[in-house]
Design brief:
The chain contains four helices and no strands. By secondary structure, it is mainly α. The protein has a domain of about 60 residues. The longest helix has about 40 residues. The chain is elongated and about 95 Å long. The relative contact order is 0.05.
């Protein structure tokens, strides 16, 4: 981009004409796209690092602590047994 700007300045273009020049616009668009991609990659790497630290902490805890925590939770309330429906064989056939 710097070389393109230097060429245009040698030809005598002013700031406004340089800003409207097609080659410069294309280069600026590519730079913006690259910056967006790099930000996405950085965010992904940051999230991966956070997950790795969480996983390391989880693995560092002894299994006994985790099992004790589960046992201390209240058991789920008991549900009533469901009634079984009669089979179609026991029901009387309906006239057609």
């Amino acid at each position: 981009m710097q070389t393109r700007l230097a060429i245009l300045e040698e030809k005598g273009y002013d700031e406004k004409k340089i800003a409207r020049e097609v080659g410069i616009k294309e280069l600026k668009a590519k730079i913006k796209q690259s910056q967006v991609r790099l930000r996405a990659i950085d965010a992904n790497e940051k999230r991966t690092a956070e997950l790795a630290t969480i996983k390391a902490e989880r693995l560092a805890k002894p299994k006994e602590e985790a099992s004790k925590a589960k046992k201390q939770e209240e058991p789920p309330p008991e549900t009533k047994p469901k009634k079984k429906k009669k089979k179609a064989e026991d029901a009387e056939p309906q006239p057609a």
